[in-house]
Design goal:
Layout (H helix, E strand, L loop, with lengths): L1 E2 L15 H14 L3 E4 L2 E3 L3 E2 L2 H17 L5 E4 L2 E3 L4 H6 L11 E5 L6 H13 L3 E5 L5 H5 L2 H10 L2 E5 L9 H12 L5 E3 L12 H8 L5 H16 L14 H4 L4
Parallel strand pairs: 1-2, 2-5, 3-6, 6-7, 7-8, 8-9, 9-10
Antiparallel strand pairs: 3-4
Length: 256
Amino acid sequence: MIDIHTHLLNNVDNGSVDIIETLTGLKLAEEAGFTDIILTPHYIEGYYENGYTLIKQKIEELQQKLEENNIGLKIYQGNEIYISINVGDLLKSNTVSSLAGSRYVLVELPQKIKLQELYDLLEEIKTAGYVPVLAHPERYAFVQKNPKALLALVKNYDVIVQANYGSILGQYGKEAQKTLIKMLKTNMVHVLATDTHRTGFVYGHFYKVEKEFLKYISMERFKRLTVTNPKSILEDKPLELEQTKGPKKKLFFAFA
């Protein structure tokens, strides 16, 4: 499996606090069956400004530690970019990192963003030559209230949807869990990732995560979301996207 969203790079954001925690988490990821990890520290202007050069240096140092500790994972550079009016300039100037140097960029939204503002920013990302990967939309209030808004992003702005493994266990609350289930049933999840901030939070009991997902999707589709599509991101190729279903009134307006 391939994890495209993690906060295991030490001492850069609210994730791993030191190299020991980083190595412990990566070892647990390997034991859970992950082969490739993209390290995506937050980039939030004026707060976590973890830019390209800093992250590149820290990943080079971490690679040496992996070899010394016989951890066979492959690691890659990225950012989780808190979307802002400067997102286009940040990408064009290589201030922030795409996912493993690909066309795909991982973006996080403010909770209270206005939809028209979001549309403009997504268009700016596309104009800069990138494909937005939306981090954990099941956690956003506007998606929980009306998942039809997410369908519009997928269809009109080519957004790739990344959901968190932990959401299926209720890690982020019941509403996020319910919303993720609705997204799975309508084929509005393209990639699954851990978004892990500390060691082993999901990796340590991954069997439970897989068991829960298989209540709603087939093993074939689970592999598409955990291996096939993440691999396409690593290789900078188009993803295998299923036709979205609906929207059915009962399904999409359950929270209205």
